[in-house]
Amino acid sequence: MREIDPKQTKRAAAFELWMKAPMPMITIFKTLDVANLVKISRKHGYKFNMLMCWCIGKAASQIEEFYLLPIDGKLMQYDSIAINTVGATKNGDINTCDIPYSKDLAQFNQDYLKLTRKVHDTCEPHDLSGEYMVIGTSALVQCEIDGAVNIYAGVYNNPFIIWGKYKRKLLKTPLSISFQFHHTQMDGGHAAQFLECLQKEITNLKI
């Protein structure tokens, strides 16, 4: 993580417009078809949530704006991305776990299982925010939801994706998600491009 001069980036105008805005976050809702991930999860024994996180990381890694993040009035640049997930701990609470994104699905799965187990057993978060641009996620798999809005006041500026339980239909498996991001980091067009890329990665994943 290193500070960069916003004026030397494509986000110069956005930084001036939105960095001090009282409500700088934007949320976009989209319904994905996750039939392929459900199939792979059942056939190969991968956790569905892990597959979603990996596809999010792969899609985000192709959008340059994901390597930037506004923090404390500064624009920071990162070399790598991590995906944050929320999981249960052995004492009955929940905690967060940052998993570094890897192009290698097997490596990401190994890290996912190891780190989420560590968080479960130690009841302590695994935090990579000083090293990676972290994409937050929250899976509310107990219920079907149309979307959700996270903290909206610029306190937590990281992009954040929330989803619930996927639905079952004859030809598709719809999953409604909400994607929240800081307007300084990216515009709506970048967000839409990311969501289209995410659907592509979900559909085209082969093992």
User: How much is the average pLDDT?
Assistant: 95
Q: What summary fits the major beta sheet?
A: 6 strands, mixed
Terminal CA distance reads 33 Å
* Count of alpha/pi helices: 5
Query: What is the alpha-carbon Rg in Å?
Result: 17 Å
Q: How would you spell out the order of helices and strands?
A: EHEHHEEEEHEEEH
> Residue ranges: pLDDT <50 for 5 or more in a row?
none
Broad structural category: alpha+beta
E-strand count: 9
Taken from the alpha-carbon principal axes, the silhouette is globular
Q: How large is the share of residues in beta strands?
A: 25-35%
The helical percent reads 25-40%
Strand arrangement across the biggest beta sheet: 2-9-8-7-5-6
Helix and strand arrangement:
Elements: E1 2-4, H1 12-18, E2 25-33, H2 35-44, H3 48-60, E3 68-71, E4 74-77, E5 81-88, E6 94-100, H4 105-122, E7 133-139, E8 160-163, E9 174-182, H5 188-204
Parallel strand pairs: 5-7, 7-8
Antiparallel strand pairs: 1-4, 2-9, 3-4, 5-6, 8-9
Helix pairs in contact: 3-5
